[in-house]
Amino acid sequence: MSYRRIAPEEAFATPAVLAETKRVLEGGSVEPGFAMMGASILGEDPGARAIPARLTDLGAGRIAQMDADGIDLALISMTSPGVQVFAPDVAVALAAEANDVLAEAVRAHPTRFAGLATVAPQVPGRVGAELERAKAPGLKGFLINSHTGGEYLDLPHYAPIWEAAEALDMALYLHPREPGPGMVSPFLDYGLYFAGWGFAAECGLHAMRLIMSGLFDRYPRLRICLGHMGEGIPFWLQRIDNRYALQVKIGAVTPPKRMPNDYFRDNFVITTSGVTTDAALRHVIDVLGVERVKFAGDYPYEDVREGIDFLDGAPISDEDRRAIYETNAVRSWGLPDARAVDPSAEPGAGRGRPGSLHRTGSPHRRGTRPRIQAGRGRFLQRRRAVTGGGPPLRYRGDKGLSQRRSDACGGAWPSRPHRPRGNRYAQPPPSACRSRRARSRFRGHQR
Asked: What is the CATH number of the domain that holds 291?
């Protein structure tokens, strides 16, 4: 089985966007969280100085890094916070320029780049025209870096954005940023405003506001992508439904047409960006199904190679690995098939080269070791160092759903577990187990 590695959430910026960002930060009258970002990853710290050059490179340098990491196709989009911290007219103009620059890069490198449009939510009425203009040269969707001035997209005056997205059939990547002025104060201490916690808390809140506002009843064909394993929401879905049902019962909220869980499953997909643990991957596959999970690298802010090493060695089937790397991204973003952009591409032609297709079980890109040996990569080496050379930390402690399912099936964790419609979190039926003893254990576990 062969596949391409497709990476959404790969950031870029134009020189004009970076220059305006610097000018706004130097002006002093900015959101507190954005000011903290400007003093760290967007600032002059030695560890951040290489980032502007990487963001503006849409040519040979970026492609060389993709080759080194093993990425075949990058779906490129505006870095956070992008144009959303600028004056409205400036934001509209710089968004249009960014779309022109990105479209030209895609035309120059059609086998390596695809793009998501930049828009200015500050002027919702002009987003539709810009999306239509950006779609014409082939941009595949659009990205918004979560809140704009502390406002979220469920508010009524943002309706033109959703109308345009649904009419043009362009999916949204809802990307996180630092918390807005109304919630940022407790995040400013201890670095909590940043990607380790504040980004997910802020973007997860945004997604939940969209769900609970009834947005998907008004626009049922909307498609939204969340990064970082869904910004934590898949872990909470059962409790969200449970507590929302209680709120309905006591009259605290208006009864929904459907439960929050259903909207999330039908209107959202997620990517793996920046999360490299088997437990997290197993959980989102269990809860959402593998067809709603995509790989992402998050260049230049994450170690893309680490993400690839993790997914190459993850204990999933080759079919699921291909779906996460390629099939789901092609379907979600309307990307071309490999041979549609490069008819000469052959399975196993090479690793990390333009048009190459990676063949399951072929030698690892960085040496002659088999893929499954090398797939654990630097991540697990560090984890084993922490545990003194023993088993990785994720195998210690209480057994979770995936391990219980594995025990019930004699050690074989099904890659696509049975989930009855009435109880999506149920254990697999006895028929999925391999022995009479395993079926007996399953029945005992149910009791």
From this structure: 3.20.20.140
The single residue of 69, 154, 286, 298 carrying the catalytic annotation is 298
pLDDT, residue 106, reads: 98
Q: Does 382 map to a domain?
A: no
pLDDT band at 378; cut points 50, 70, 90: very low
- What integer best gives the mean pLDDT of the chain? 82
What DSSP string describes 103-161? HHHHHH-TTTEEE-EE--TTSGGGHHHHHHHHHTTT--EEEE-S-BTTB-TTSGGGHHH
Instruction: Tell me the average pLDDT across 3-8.
Output: 96
Which tokens belong to 314? 């993850």
Q: Which two tokens stand for residue 153?
A: 């997209």
**DSSP one-letter string for 367-423:** SSSBHHHHTTHHHHHHHHHHTTTSS-GGGSSS--HHHHHHHHTTT---SS----TT-
Do 329 and 408 lie in one domain? The reply is no
Cα torsion at 395, 400, 405, 406 (round to 10°)? 0
C-beta separation of 268 from 207 below 8 A = yes
Question: Reduced to 3 states, what is the DSSP secondary structure of residue 6?
Answer: strand
Which domain range does residue 327 map to?
2-372
383 within some domain: no
Are residues 354 and 435 part of one domain?
A: no
CB-based contact 443:436 (threshold 8 Å): no
Give the CA dihedral 330, 334, 338, 342, nearest 10 degrees: -160
DSSP designation for 269: E
Residue 71 sits in the same domain as residue 210: yes
pLDDT, tens digit, 9 for 90 and up, residues 161-211? 999 999 999 999 999 999 999 999 999 999 999 999 999 999 999 999 999
Residues 412, 350 within the same domain:
no
What lies within 8 Å, CB to CB, of 445 at 6+ separation is: 404, 407, 408, 427
Q: Which pair of tokens denotes residue 119?
A: 């828009």
For residue 181, the number of C-alpha atoms closer than 13 Å in the C-beta half-sphere is 8
219: how many CB neighbours lie within 10 A of its CB?
A: 16
Could you confirm whether 298 is annotated as catalytic?
yes
pLDDT at residue 126 tops 80: yes
Q: What is the pLDDT of residues 418-439, one digit of tens each?
A: 444 444 434 444 444 444 444 4
Q: Which residues, in sequence order, are CB contacts of 186 under 8 Å at separation 6+? A: 192
Going by C-alpha positions, the residue among 172, 12, 203 that lies closest to residue 105 is: 12
pLDDT tier for residue 344 given thresholds of 50, 70 and 90: low
C-alpha count within 13 angstroms, C-beta hemisphere, residue 125: 2
Q: Which two tokens stand for residue 329?
A: 């991204």
pLDDT band at residue 256 under the 50/70/90 scheme: confident
